[in-house]
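FORM 12-B: Structure-to-Sequence Request
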């Protein structure tokens, strides 16, 4: 029986199904599409194209080494689309692989590390030692794992890179798989797709391409013939046709003009108001229009607007906390700007548009604590910004891109603990931004960027231990923000910046001894956050910032003995933390940082109320959360969270009078402490508590002197110190 006539089941599949009590399989597949579900959009496209493809009539019915060529390639198996509920998922996958003529693997860095994808390849090769396996490359680089420094770019799963013998066993020998490169820099989508079809059918690529071109030519010839036949009628209707054509052009021009307004002026008016629902609708309507257009036929301007629509929707998704959706949208926008840049590589506006998408993809990586991908993206962003400045050094817009690029690198330096280096970058950025803001006082972007970089400089100075310096920059930021947030229809982003500025200034004032002023600023920050949430309850950024301010204020209230107020703040902040985690559990700050703050706040209230058992229970939850996170990633943040959980556990044991248990937990905290994390005041304070808990008072006093010298008097830290007396 040849391969293209639907075969019956193999004996092994029949036997397995019989043992499982399942009925005989009723479907066979021309191809099994294997992919990482991070590449779902590409799989959607390829699956649709394969099932829609009509084999040229001259090839259909032809006998090849693969059997009789069919007229259609249906059905194609995809696990998400094809699998119904079953008692044995493994058996269903095995059956689909066993009854598939060919395996098509979408190859990308995500697929290369997908255990599921690799297992499907291994199983297919075991079941079909001589079977057809095609690698469809959509990203990354084949065999990059063999190139030093580029291992992360590998796109071929391990089983695809290895040769299997006729008995379906891996030989360990390197194999160059049959591949179609769907990337623009490779075969491109059309030729790459035809390569896949040729491989599945077992026909020559040239023959298939020639037939495909011939079919297109015949279609055009048919259109031309019909046009000639209808020429007389066309002449009669010439005036009407011309009018209709002109009307269509006018309609398209008006539509694209409206899209331009929606993505430009209208977006700029809505964005400050924080109206995510309307912004999302703007982007969706723009994409609805472009969905009816052939992307390959779009003009440069239309392609640019399409990418801007995707980018806008990605920003909305990020703000709502849906990073998976945001990344998918940003990648779609990236593909569009990359194509526009390919068409016009010297066009500065195309470089600018593409740089924005490079940044946003890197920002998602930063939010997910993937510093390697984030740094790679930011360095590419800086390269593009430098390219813009080289084209026109006097252009203030390009100067701002250069400043943004430098500042983003400063942020990465800051996040890796190189605070002095980061501060130097921020100081330089402030000088340039202040000059631009003074030269162009009406330019909102320059003023906004100046306020933003002040925040980063303040944070870097605080972590250096220059607390008064950090406070001074926050106070200057508040002075600039106050009239902006008090204005009618105030910009929501300015309010978020003000929330953070009040929160940090309040905390620093309390630490430096100005408690009354600091508490008032913290309360103002929380109040601004509540205003933002009332306007837009689903805004993840506003929720996150408000929760942070609530936890900071709660810690101060616990230290002052205002336990009812502290409990109310913690309860509200914990509820909002759970709301954020439910939105997207991949955000490390929500999953670990805010969750730990919630449990610590509850534990400290319990200790202050004389309820050490309840504090012990909350500390146990902190430990479980931190251990789970450390099992996923041994990041500095995860290790610090684990160390802090042991400290809270130790304080609870100490309050219960169990000194041996407390010492053991302080020792666990010391062992969990990450060795590479740089010192900053809050961490030095935590070390003092651990050393005191271990009975190493001289070492603790030495560090405590450093804190006194810089004026550090955090009330929570001082309260923990008093617990040892």
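FORM 12-B RESPONSE
SEQUENCE OUT:
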């Amino acid at each position: 029986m040849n391969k293209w006539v639907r075969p019956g089941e193999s004996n092994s599949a029949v036997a397995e199904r019989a043992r499982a009590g399942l009925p005989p399989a009723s479907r066979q597949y021309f191809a099994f599409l294997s992919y990482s579900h991070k590449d779902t959009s590409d799989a959607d496209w390829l699956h649709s194209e394969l099932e829609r493809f009509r084999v040229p009539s001259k090839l259909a019915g032809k006998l090849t080494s693969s059997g009789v060529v069919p007229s259609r390639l249906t059905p194609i198996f995809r696990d998400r689309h094809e699998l119904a509920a079953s008692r044995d998922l493994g058996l269903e996958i095995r059956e689909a692989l066993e009854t598939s003529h060919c395996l098509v693997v979408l190859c990308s860095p995500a697929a290369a590390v997908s255990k599921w994808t690799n297992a499907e390849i291994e199983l297919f090769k075991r079941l079909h030692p001589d079977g057809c396996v095609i690698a469809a490359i959509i990203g990354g680089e084949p065999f990059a794992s063999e190139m030093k420094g580029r291992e992360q770019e590998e796109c071929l799963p391990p089983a695809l890179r290895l040769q299997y013998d006729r008995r379906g066993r891996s030989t360990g020998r390197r194999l160059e798989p049959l591949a179609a490169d769907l990337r623009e820099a490779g075969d491109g989508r059309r030729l790459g797709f035809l390569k896949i079809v040729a491989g599945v059918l077992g026909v020559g690529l040239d023959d298939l391409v020639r037939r495909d071109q011939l079919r297109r030519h015949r279609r055009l010839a048919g259109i031309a013939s019909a046009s000639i036949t209808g020429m007389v009628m066309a002449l009669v209707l010439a005036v009407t046709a011309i009018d209709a054509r002109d009307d269509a052009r006018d309609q398209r021009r008006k539509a694209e003009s409206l899209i331009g307004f929606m993505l430009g002026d209208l977006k700029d008016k809505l964005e400050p108001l924080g109206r995510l629902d309307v912004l999302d609708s703007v982007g969706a309507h723009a994409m609805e229009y472009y969905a009816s257009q052939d992307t390959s036929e779009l003009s440069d301007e239309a392609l640019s607007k399409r990418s801007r629509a995707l980018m806008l929707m990605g920003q909305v998704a990020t703000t709502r906390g849906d990073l998976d959706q945001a990344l998918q949208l940003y990648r779609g926008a990236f593909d569009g700007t990359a194509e526009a840049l390919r068409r016009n590589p010297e066009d500065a506006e195309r470089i600018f548009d593409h740089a924005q998408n490079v940044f946003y993809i890197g920002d998602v990586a930063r939010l997910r604590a993937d510093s390697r991908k984030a740094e790679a993206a930011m360095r590419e962003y800086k390269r593009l910004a430098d390219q813009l400045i080289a084209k026109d050094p006097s252009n203030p817009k390009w100067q701002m891109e250069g400043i943004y690029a430098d500042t983003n690198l400063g942020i990465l330096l800051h996040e890796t603990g190189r605070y002095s280096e980061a501060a130097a970058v921020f100081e330089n950025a402030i000088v340039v931004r202040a000059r631009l803001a003074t030269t162009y006082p009406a330019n909102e972007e320059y003023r906004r960027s100046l306020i933003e970089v002040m925040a980063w400089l303040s944070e870097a100075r605080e972590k250096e231990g220059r607390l008064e310096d950090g406070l001074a920059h926050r106070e200057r930021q508040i002075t600039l923000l106050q009239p902006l947030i008090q204005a009618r229809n105030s910009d929501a982003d300015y309010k978020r910046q003000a929330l953070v500025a009040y929160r940090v200034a309040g905390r620093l004032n309390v630490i430096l001894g100005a408690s009354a002023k600091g508490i008032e600023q913290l309360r103002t920050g929380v109040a601004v956050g509540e205003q933002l949430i009332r306007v837009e309850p689903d805004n993840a950024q506003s929720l996150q910032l408000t929760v942070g301010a609530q936890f900071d204020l709660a810690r101060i209230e616990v230290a002052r003995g205002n336990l009812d107020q502290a409990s109310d703040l913690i309860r509200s902040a914990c509820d909002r933390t759970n709301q954020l985690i439910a939105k997207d559990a991949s955000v490390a700050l929500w999953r670990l940082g805010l969750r730990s703050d919630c449990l610590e706040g509850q534990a400290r209230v319990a200790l202050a109320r004389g309820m050490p058992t309840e504090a012990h229970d909350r500390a146990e939850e902190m430990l479980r959360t931190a251990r789970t996170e450390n099992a996923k990633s041994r990041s500095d943040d995860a290790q610090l969270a684990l160390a802090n959980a042991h400290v809270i556990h130790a304080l609870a044991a100490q309050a219960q009078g169990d000194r041996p248990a407390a010492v053991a937990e302080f020792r666990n905290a010391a062992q969990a402490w990450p060795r590479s994390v740089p010192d900053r005041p809050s961490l030095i304070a935590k070390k003092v508590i651990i050393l005191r808990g271990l009975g190493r008072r001289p070492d603790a006093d030495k560090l405590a002197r450093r804190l006194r010298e810089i004026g550090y008097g955090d009330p929570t830290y001082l309260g923990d110190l008093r617990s040892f007396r």
